[in-house]
Amino acid sequence: MGVAIRRADRNDRELVVRVLDEAFQGDPVSGWVFPGEEHRRATHHRLMAAFADTVLAEGRIDLVEDGTACALWLPVPAAPVAESAAPAVPAGAADAAGDEAETLRQEVDPENGRIELIARLMAEAHPADRAHEYLWMIGVVPGHQGRGLGTALIRPVLERCDREGLPAYLEASSPRSVPLYERLGFAALDRTLDLPDGPRMWPMWREPRG
What we know:
Elements: E1 5-7, H1 13-24, H2 28-33, H3 37-58, E2 60-64, E3 69-76, H4 93-108, H5 113-125, E4 132-140, H6 149-164, E5 168-172, H7 178-183, E6 187-188, E7 193-194, E8 200-206
Parallel strand pairs: 4-5
Antiparallel strand pairs: 1-2, 2-3, 3-4, 5-8, 6-8, 7-8
GO molecular function: acyltransferase activity, transferring groups other than amino-acyl groups
Pfam families: Acetyltransf_1
Keywords: Transferase
């Protein structure tokens, strides 16, 4: 039997936030951003809500009909690159990313500098020279993992990318998820994103298939 998936809208916001909060409570990156378990349980959902609001406004959220998993996709246009800048850094992007990272920290957890730091690091590592689809987050609630829900959520968007000739990008936040993305055609880039005194993330890129 197939997995019933629909596109989420503003009415699904609280459900999406709950799914993401439950799915990432035990994630190593979330554990680094919110190192205290009690504080994480009290605050983590605010970060998930900020992410959900951004994607509801600018991208798309695909939701498993029974509310057990969701995927957040953001279309990223190609950005102009200054001649003196590194190839992956668009002109003016560093300042804009810094402002957004600071705003995110102030909205979610003002005393937690790790929120701003990880936002800056992810923005700096994000390829910007080609338009692509960005799989920002994919979350499956505990108890429903290992049933193929992640693949079911990702595959239709990748099929559209193939039809439209669009690459896709993501950051794997745990080593166990890297093989899953590799089976879907993603390949790890030649650099990792190593959080200070924290876990490693794997930026991954997928070329469209003909």
